[in-house]
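Thread: quick sanity check before group meeting

JM: Hey all, I'm pulling together slides for Thursday and realized we never actually wrote out the predicted structure for the chain we discussed last week. Dropping the sequence here so it's in one place. If anyone has concerns about the input, flag it before I start.
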Amino acid sequence: MSRAPRILLLLLLLTSSLAHADLKLYVFDCGQLSFPDVTAFGLSNEETSVRELFVPCYLIKHDDHLMVWDAGLPLADVGQSGGNSRYQTSFLQQLAAMNISPADIDFIAFSHMHYDHVGAANAFNQSTLLIQEAEATAAFEHPEDNPVFRPELYSQLRDSNRISLSGDYDVFGDGSVKIISTPGHTPGHQSLYLELSRFGPLILSGDLYHFEASRELRRTPVFNTSIEETLMSMDKVESLLELTGATFWIEHSKELAETLDLAPSYLE
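JM (edit): ok, ran it. Output follows.
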C-alpha cells in the first residue's frame, strides 16, 4: 500500500477520543449456505475442502445506542433445512429473546446488499441506514444489474432515514466503530472495524473473503463487481490489520463460528 493511504488509515485510527465507550458485540446465527462446487468463488474444488458457509448477524451496543451489522438470510428461509440454505431461528426472534425489537435499533448497516446479508432488512426501516452511495445506487436504482441483489428484501429501506457514505466513516465519532470502505465485491462493499476494550481491535470482513483459501491465494469470486477494486480493498484491510494488530474475522467462516459464544453472550 502506498504511503498516502497508510497515512489516511493512521489518521482514521487516531480520531479515537480519550473516553472509551461501553462497547459490546453480539454474534447471531442467521443461517448457513452449502456450495458443493466453489468454482464461482474463484477457487478450484481442490484448493479448499470447505463447502459450508456460516451466515452471521451482528449487534453492536455503543453506550445507549444499538447498531445492526448484516441481517442474515431471508426470513422466508427460516425453518428450511433443504436446498443450499438452512436457517432455524430468525434474527428477529433472537433479538426478541433479548427484549430487543427492530424499533430499538438506531443504526443499520450492511457489508453489502446481497441477499444473504439483508434477509431481515425491511424490519429495520425505522433505523438510520449507513450505506456507501455507490451501493445505494446499485441496490435501489439498478438491482437488475446484479443478480445476487433481491430488492424485495430491502425495498422498505428506500425511503428510510439514510446517511450516504463516500468512504470510511466513524459511526459514533469516538473511533470505536468505523465503517471501512472496501469496494469490489459490490460497488459499495464495506467492512467494519471495532475497538473493543477487552478483546481488542477487530475487523469484520463482510465478503471481502468467503474462505480462508480466498485470503491465502488472493482469489476473487467471478461475480464480483470489480477484481481490481477487490484486490485494492484486500491490500487496504491487510495494511489496517498490520497497523492495528486487529483480529480479523472472515464472516462466512463456519470454523470460526464454531469457536464463538453466540448471543446473548458478547465480546467487549
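AS: nice. Residues 15-19 have pLDDT under 50 and may be disordered. The helical segments are 3-13, 91-96, 133-141, 212-217, 227-244, 254-257.
JM: adding both to the slides.
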